[in-house]
Fold this protein.
Amino acid sequence: MRIPVQELVEMYKDNIYAAAFNICKSAADAEDVVQDTFLQYYMTKKEFDDEKHIRYWLLRVAINKAKNIQSSFRRKNEMSLEDYVETLTFETPESRELFEEVLKLPEKYRVVIHLFYYEDYSVKEIAKILRVTESSVKVRLSRGRAKLKDALKEEWEDEQ
Amino acid sequence: MSNKEKYKKAFSVLNSSCDFTLEEKRMNRIKRENTHRNLLVAAAVMFVVLAGSGTAYAADIGGIRETVQMWIHGEQTDVTINDESIEYVDGDGNKQVETGVSVDPENGERPLTGEEIAEEKVNEVDVDKTDDGKMILYFHDKQFDITDNIANNNCKFHVVADDGEIYVELDIDSNGDFSITTYPRAELFTNYVELK
């Protein structure tokens, strides 16, 4: 099946942006990832099983693109992370603190934490998206949670 | 509020301002621009590769040789093998540089080569105590929860991964600190737990 790209943009652009930003920590780079990911969908002739499959594919493509930008000379960094965070309107100071602490995590923990807590993917699904073993996802999730617990104290429930 | 709810609330501030205009005409223009950009990127990559070759040549005298993927502490990790060291970024994001020395009664001391250190590293056994008190043993791509074994004073293990096996003995003191000794064969073992 295929869903028209215009519908997908409305459905998933914020999810893709959030996943890409989580890796790049740059609004400009994350916007590029959103554009490039939908462009790749538009250009691919791939058939998908269902909407869930499309979402999974979009996120996997976006994460790979974000990682490529992260490790390349293409980085834009038009605005510093601190300046960008100042432009965001958080509902509470705790939300802002959580946001900032997540961005302090090493990238490999951030991605796993984001896919688990934001996208509601299971360990098994995250392992497939990132093409790593389930045990590796568990380790990263556990270490990421532990670091968040250390930083956020009672604002983060113990889930170990 | 659960952690998931808190996380979603915090990250809901991220909204793409992507103006993905949807007319076919514009999409085609983006396609062309993208192709053009890819060509530029390819040209730049070629430059980097050529420059990289120069670096590699220079590095043969005193530096980088190759990067390989290895299992370290249960995670697949990129490891750069230098002449007399290896380098990698650990699970906490810290850069690690490891060196080694070979002591031979006849020939004295010499630094281990990067390949020798990597060979040691790939067969290294790690044991980690997690925050919730579990003891996890790592070998190659495998990890085993050995908490119950240790509680029952079973501290000798035969660990089998897809591409290797090793015998491991943990020596745990009264403070809970431990040291790890490994053996390639079972001669010194009388009783051990099979971990597969």
Summary: The mean pLDDT of chain A is 89. Chain A touches chain B through 54 residues (CB under 8 Å).
